[in-house]
Amino acid sequence: MANLLFSFQGRANRAKFWLVALGIVVVEVILFAAILGGAAMSGDPEEIASAIGPVAGVVIFVFVVIATWISIAVAVKRYHDRDKSGWWVLIVLVPIIGGLWYLIECGFLRGTPGPNSYGPDLLAAA
Please, is 32 exposed, middle or buried when counting C-beta atoms within 10 Å of its C-beta (0-12, 13-18, 19+)? Predict the structure, then answer.
């Protein structure tokens, strides 16, 4: 699991890509719900702001850094699965088109069948 989440080597199929994306969203929702608690329910902006203290800010920052690393690592592996360089992950920096390209390529297009330059086919091994 650590290899999937933190390494930039190898391949990842679409299912793993979507599971990681879903996992990050679930952890994010739980984290923010725990931090904000009932403060967000009140609708009072001052109460919400006071609920987010310095400790919560550090926790959120650490989560964002780790989630960003994991997202990039899995995206690089998706590009490897498509037999492309991991540098293609930088396509998201192109306004509008880049994000759409990334979503289609990583989330919906099938990887190359059989082994490629980045490793064996994960679906054939299953």
Answer: middle
